[in-house]
Amino acid sequence: MKIQLYNKHPKYNEYFYTELEMPATRYVIHDALQKLRFFDGDTLEFNISECPEFPEIKGMNVDRANIFDLNNYAYRLNEMKEYDLVAMRAVFTRRQSEGMYQDGIMMGELINLTYGLEGLPSLVNINNTLQLGQFVIDNDMNPDLEGLDASVLDLIDRNALGVHQVDIDNGVFIDGYYIATANYELPDIYKDSHLKDSSYIKLEKVFALEISKAPEDDLSTEESAEWITLPINKNRANLIARRHGEQRIESCAYYGFDSAIPQIDRFAFGKMEDFDKLNELAEKYLNMSDAERIKYKAVLDRYCATDLMQALTIADSIQHYDFYPYAEREDQFFREYLSMISDSRLDTRWTDAICSDDSENLLRALNARITDYGVISEMGGNLFEPVKYFKPIHPLTDSKDFDVVEVCGQLGLYIDARIPPGEIPEDLYKYEFRHGDEEYFSTLEKNVFVNHSGTLITRKPIDLGESGYISLNLDTSPNFIGDSARLEDFLESDFDERFSQNQSGDISLS
């Protein structure tokens, strides 16, 4: 099950957003809330965006839900057998057809629907009322038909008989099953958890290791493994190791690894010889405030730190970084920067609509970086200090080569970078690509502020339609010709002809 999470920006009419695959470990949920800039007192909003086990609830409003209950519900769906899932969906479909759930469903009822399904009568490979009517006749299910001659039975309308049986059973056809739901009574099992979403930002442990005795003769010892959580007292860790036949925890093998710091995964940890370093890092992280933990992850992201020693060094110097969590795009930070350094009398609504191509230049001038957790400075930096206007040398003015591409029926130039409008000659047109979760070129748009995947320059305008963008697929994505050209070449009126000649090997554009 995949859910979408939203948390409102504390200052502007905007939302932070992330997706979460459930069921998830406590550590994964903890990190997702940090990416949402979620603190105690915030109100979290949910939307179920995918649920293969129960597709009928996709997009439904789930009232009185919290992450704890949703996660437990996802675990329960994963554990249910195929028949129970189908029976649950049938009961839901029947109750929905009776007018229930028009405004959504209560979290308690959603959970209770997963119980009490074992005794519901069902038939397999019965897909419609016609097949059901035939089954009723073949199995003498209708007492009114007892004793009738076969010639009379042949005259009976099978479809009408099936419709009648559906009415009796409150039956539902679903995924090759026929489920009779008439005798289903909704159990009263679920009780409010009373847990708050903020409970997930209160960690008591940081890492989890599934440890066991070291393998002998290449024979796995995973069957006897147990989970331990860090930080842990070293003497206690060694006692656990002795219980598994090793004198010290470093001599054990580990099979599973879980982390509240996604940058520190099992590859960053490596071997059990580094147990003390991992344990020390867990202690340092646990001693940080909620705000410092988010800042810490932003610094790890900035430096792509996946080494334990580097992670420990950063933990010791976290106070030397400046951090602003409430921006996930360059233009958001640009707006906040202007409001912060401007006269206190400035009405910040004047800056709400600001969207400048200089927003990236500002981050470069400050030597700051956008991360999944917010904007982080360099070590010793100040995000809101006044800086002189900064305009870097751009690939266009640097006369670098562009890739020649064919897109939307014309040749164009592509570069994997942003280009300010002022750098584009008047006779040319600039568009930008956006990437999706799986494809590098998802849409072509006039301006892309998030998930930017490159810039396209053309000599003729491209009609983006009423929606303001063109969706791309494998057939319509830019076709890289396999050659490059400079801007001065593209400005020549005979570029297409010269390029065609170049493809034949007659002329070189470089």
Write a brief caption for the model:
The chain has helices spanning about 25-35, 65-80, 80-95, 105-110, 130-140, 150-155, 160-170, 235-245, 265-270, 275-285, 290-300, 310-315, 330-340, 360-365, 485-490, 495-505; strands at about 1-10, 15-20, 45-50, 60-65, 105, 120-125, 170-175, 175-180, 205-210, 225-230, 255-260, 325, 370, 375, 400-405, 410-415, 430-435, 445, 450-460, 470, 480-485. The chain has about 500 residues and is of the alpha+beta class. The longest helix is centred in the first third of the chain and has 16 residues, at about 80-95.
Describe the structure.
The protein is α+β, with helices and mostly antiparallel strands and 510 residues long. The chain folds into 5 domains: 111 residues, no CATH class; 59 residues; 117 residues, no CATH class; 54 residues; 102 residues, no CATH class. It contains 16 helices and 21 strands. The chain has a 7-stranded antiparallel β-sheet. Helix 5 packs across helix 7 and helix 10 packs parallel to helix 12. It is globular and about 95 Å long. The C terminus is likely disordered.
